[in-house]
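Mods, move this if it's the wrong board.
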Amino acid sequence: MSAPVSWRSVGQERAAPSHERKKAATRQGLAAAAQRLFVERGFDKVTVAEIAEAADTAVSTLFAHFPGGKEALVLGNRDEREQALTAAVRQRPADVSVLQALRDFLATRGPFDPDPEPEARRIAALVIATPALRAHARALWTSCEVALTRVIAEQTGRDADDLSLRLLARYVLEIPDLAGTEPDPTAALDTAFAHLQRGWPSL
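Not the wrong board. Structure tokens:
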């Protein structure tokens, strides 16, 4: 016979979704306020205190949701990026290669998006024009190297310690910074992957 469920635990279970919605709304409000201020005044001229005030919350709340500070308000965190990147490889259709899946994934991001919303276009331009944001974006991508190497190894039956796969992962993760600043980012993205395809024809 199963143990009875207390009213307290039931209440906590019912409250959890509401709590998560509140957290998500707070994060969204902070990010929206930050991005609006950054676009209007420039990244370096906006303080975290001004962002918190614009979002009607406390600075401590801002850092609780975005420990990475101002950069994270624009670019998110590594975990979100890593999960999306590895899912693109793991969940690709059976007839799509690993490299094609990675190319298609990057084609939806930042400067490579062919039809971005106006706000997304402004944020992409802000990142490219702001050295601190561009450096942080590159660091976020390259920090996914181990995870990307492992998922490619998993999907191809190869050893995750294979230097060739580690090199490939690093090259892929440098593409957003290198190709994203070209006059035609999408053409640069295709050029990068054409070179990778010649180096790793089986992937």
